[in-house]
Amino acid sequence: MSKAITISHEDILHQVKLSCQIPEIVEQIVTRKVIADAAAEAGIKVETEELQKAADSLRLISKLNSAEETKAWLQKNGLSLDDFEELIYNNVISGKLAHHLFADKVEPFFIEHQLDYAGVVMYEVVLDDEDLAMELFYAIQEGEMSFYEVAHQYIQDTELRRKGGYQGIVGRKELKPEISAAVFAATPPQVLKPILTSKGVHLILVEEIIEPELDDKLRYQILSDLFAGWRKQQIEQVEVVSKLKSNSQAA
User: Among 8, 54, 69, 229, which residue's CB has the most CB atoms within a 10 Å radius?
Assistant: First the structure.
């Protein structure tokens, strides 16, 4: 027979402390309060239809296809129905506040920073020997070897070798500055002269430069980034007064 263990709210709070999660949770609490205050000040309200739509989306994402599955999920996460409604409300009010603050700033921001959102289709081989990298570079330039042959011979990772060093579509911000500068100055298709970084010597084939387009996905990303920056700024201005006491203080 299995042994029953009773877990109290005090046990959970104590475990949160022992897990050193207090700072993270405090930041989440402050964020929620900052958003609520700003939304109230802006006169933002949430309609019933918006809550229902958001609840349906959350259930879909969480694969809660029935009332029984939803009930089990709530129990697993220690949530009441009121807690669930509050969770949905917070998500909706946060999204509406972000839209209220930054919807009209997304396009100007994109225009000013559009180079940051460019992408590149590239292949890469990272070597330890700079002289070897230069030798291979010139061999490719003179048609003695193809980039694929270099990748197949010098890449150790099996999957990456099979793909010929293919890195996929890489954003400018994902690349080291010294690599980014060379890559986005290239005229595709072009093999770049080896670039030395702390990771090694990079032999790169630039296949295509993808110019940024302000589609729905990028619009949402920029809106989220602007809102995240705003939240961080607001949190830094808040003085947190904690009423939690450690065991040593209580003693």
Answer: 54
